[in-house]
Amino acid sequence: MREPIFLPLDQPELETDLAGGVVRRTVHPSGLRVLTERMPSARSASIGFWVGVGSRDEQAERDDAPGSLGSTHFLEHLLFKGTPTRDAYSIATSFDRIGAEHNALTAKEYTCYYAKVRDADLDGAVTVLADMVTNSVLDGDEFEMERGVILEELAMAADDLADVANERFFEAVMGDHPLGRPIGGHPETIRAARRDDVDLHYRDRYDPTTLVITAAGAVDHDRLVERVLEALNLSPQERWHTDRDGTPVRRVQGEGRIDSTSVDASADQTPSASSVPGLSTGAAGTGNAEPSVHITARPSEQVNLLIGTEGLRSNDPRRFAFGVMNSVLGGGMSSRLFQEIREKRGLAYTAYSFGASYSDAGLFGMYAGCAPEKAAEVVELSRLELQRMAETGITDEERERALGQIAGSSALALEDSDTRMGRLARAELGSGELYDLDASLERFAAVTGDEIRSIAAELAARPLTIVAVGDTSRAEL
Amino acid sequence: MREPIFLPLDQPELETDLAGGVVRRTVHPSGLRVLTERMPSARSASIGFWVGVGSRDEQAERDDAPGSLGSTHFLEHLLFKGTPTRDAYSIATSFDRIGAEHNALTAKEYTCYYAKVRDADLDGAVTVLADMVTNSVLDGDEFEMERGVILEELAMAADDLADVANERFFEAVMGDHPLGRPIGGHPETIRAARRDDVDLHYRDRYDPTTLVITAAGAVDHDRLVERVLEALNLSPQERWHTDRDGTPVRRVQGEGRIDSTSVDASADQTPSASSVPGLSTGAAGTGNAEPSVHITARPSEQVNLLIGTEGLRSNDPRRFAFGVMNSVLGGGMSSRLFQEIREKRGLAYTAYSFGASYSDAGLFGMYAGCAPEKAAEVVELSRLELQRMAETGITDEERERALGQIAGSSALALEDSDTRMGRLARAELGSGELYDLDASLERFAAVTGDEIRSIAAELAARPLTIVAVGDTSRAEL
Hints:
Order of helices and strands of chain A: EEEEEHHEEHHHHHEHEEHHEEHHHEHHE
Structural class of chain A: alpha+beta
Largest sheet of chain A: 7 strands, mixed
Largest interface: A-B, 74 and 74 residues
Strand content of chain A: 15-25%
Number of helices of chain A: 15
Oligomer: homodimer
Helix content of chain A: 25-40%
Distance between the termini of chain A: 47 Å
Shape of chain A: globular
Radius of gyration of chain A: 23 Å
């Protein structure tokens, strides 16, 4: 079996063949990392500036302090607002005039600023992104203006009931764990946010040791490294402002973090709900206990349902078994959930299952939107399908279909340079293990029926959380 | 200047060089058309079965008949439900087991069934798509089940206030024109739909003369044509069931269609609201008249606003001027609407403008979602920006940026085989004129400042429609 490529931090230069491309990485003495994957026939490139800080790193509200929920996302917005040499309009124009696909995103464990551009435009994009990310002035007036924009962004999300359900689901499953918090914060925390606190967050967290620059497509590694160092005003030996020792940050299981409790590093232990510490789980291993039901009443035509429980960490070796199981359970039109809920009964337009994984916790969920009167039936059908999976696993035919689906969809996804650009960054910021397509397909193919039943049984045995958002007055939940 | 490639219908075999690929077309004696664009380095292909029938072709409700609104979309769903040799599960599995990106969409003037697959999977996808599209059994039980699914799809759309605003905007601007109707129908028409009517729609409308098969990426034209004919059980000379004379259907301005009035073919005439017949316009050329305001009250955090008027037909020669104007007005972060509404005032998270064009009519709109109390201000800002554009046009710098944006974003979009696959089909089903990237960029570059001012002046002079959906009790509209 092909091993994943491990990206050791003490190796400043690394080059390795991946199926479909060559991956190279340079670690600068400051800790800054640049990774590229050249795609031979590409005429465009995707580039991302990734910072290893996300909403989970924010300070939660406490009795003696207002907390800073939403400050990472607020900061992401502010980085578009200007540097000493570029105002907001100039930054916007830089991307628009080359027709770049560009944006930024704040996640729970990282923040990313990215652009997809024609090959000839890559150097220019690097210059602007580097300036934005490292030299933002966080102007006070712009701060106030952006507060209004972010409040509108939260208002927009609050009007999207599927979005609301998703936030509630994270809160309900994760409890007080920092991963349970909303990425954007709450309107109250945004209204209370102060420029100096966000500035502190910026100075404290944006640092060469947390910055990872990845690019894929029509990119030349040496040239990109040169441009990056130039744009960041770094000589090959010089260090950008940092008080740290230049050791890059990786988010590894077991490392203490703000607000997180100590973490059990053994992911192979006997499954139980308590295997993910820091979560408020209630009774462990009690799949037959009453599920906890979280209802948000809103006028609506449909009720948005999420049914699930704690899932797997990013590096859980059982993630390959989970992937095959998830494909069969809820990964397409032929999946069991889609067939049982939509095709056989016409109860919903969409029904699927998913996993979300982070360094020290994860969650598993099943989603459907349906008429309020049918909500109880859809919840019951979903539970039964998970239970059936736990008891009887999958058939050989389903297994073959799942492996084909994973192989085909992965191959199609990897044709886009942005997928490869993101894969590099998540590996580098995460465990440092990079699975190329063939290596990961071999892992999926090696999954046994017992492993699939076992992971389903573990999920089915965990306390179930049900989130319903919509006109729940007619739903018997 | 490079001319567009015209695809004459009396020429059964056609091959032409496009920038970036070779386009070939075969017209079968039955009227069936197959078009391909080979992309040299592609490892995957996108294939679409396009039928030249859309929601505009449905029978509207009348005193003596219930109408068939939503039947085209209902039919699209039913084609996934089975043929004499493939049941619904088998169809779903065919796509899932190769990890295809596949779906179908019903639009106002066409219906499309498509898949993106790895090169080795293309033949298989053709076989299944051909069977689905031409041999559906429209089973009565499946029909009833799918009625529930479609009602849930409509319920989901009804909960999405931006979606609701979009439907209202089409209705309000287009009036009784068939393009003003909702693609999915209404819950009442779906509840009233009868299997035999949808079957009639299928027999009547799905025909070799309305079917266009397009593919792009890793595709060999001759092989594809062979597969298609084999899958459709057609010899190179034989005709698939049709009573027509085998003349392919193109949706051209001036051709009579169900419910549409006669159309003035001169798109170059002096701009006025009455230049798009079939629309209920009110007073023409009265930009200073009171706009017509359409309010849909819903509990919400944001009000979804659409402000606009009639726009351009697909083939309007002024569409290149409109494209440049639209880029400057509302086509990116540096656009005027984004700057004025979001960046300078923090009133909205999103603000943009757009055009939607059809064979004999079109519309132009400006969108923003904002706090109810700010709705009147956002509407006024949008009107003012359109007015300013009409009076003073754009600067040289804006023009350069717009051309760069159009060139860059088009080049990036055309890297995806699905974009090219769709471009072929829209050209073939529309006017038969195919602009490759260079030819269309030359058109954009040739646009003069006067033309931009002129198209903006025309839009600004038309009666304005304002649609607001959300908690409008606090909005002074």
